[in-house]
Amino acid sequence: MTLEEVLIQKPAERVQSTGKALEEVLISAKDNDCLTVGVYESAKVMNLDPDSVSFCVLAVDEEFECDIALQIHFTLIQSFCFDNDISIVRVSDMQRLAEIVGDKAEQLDDAHCVLITNPADGSWEDPALEKLHLFCEESRSLNDWVPEITLPER
To answer: What is the pTM of this model?
Structure first.
């Protein structure tokens, strides 16, 4: 999908299709072992190999409003993403995000930050990821630096 095709979509359609694209990318990245889940794990990856990070998802929940340390981490992660030209979005349903990126056997305690990384051999590409990058580019042009995406219900 080109930027022009994204721009002619109605806002409601754009948000819905972007949420679906995010879900597709997360599932595909998980299947290709290209996900990093957790604030601290994500910070480690960003510090060691920032060039491998392609996309960042921050998830907020009720805990976010009361957790000053988490807010500081989010601010630092956002700053790092802006400095390194990494597309970044926010979702408001951390539980749904945890369902998508987690294994059914394990309960994810920290799905506040999810990174989509590029494999070293460059073998994985997803057209939905390009759609998300275009969405972020369009949002930045409208001064929405960390756009919020609604993940589709199961």
So the answer is: 0.85
Low-confidence ranges of the chain (pLDDT < 70): 1-16, 104-108, 120, 122-123
User: How far is it, in rounded angstroms, from Cα 119 to Cα 126?
Assistant: 12
Contact 21/89 with Cβ under 8 angstroms? no
Q: Where are the beta strands (DSSP E) in 5-153?
A: 35-37, 53-59, 87-91, 113-117, 148-149
- CA dist 5 and 31 (Å) reads 28
Closest of 44, 59, 70, 47 to residue 111, by C-alpha: 59
**How many residues appear in the chain?**
154
Find out whether 42 and 132 touch, Cβ atoms under 8 Å: no
CA angle 133, 38, 109 (to 5 degrees): 130
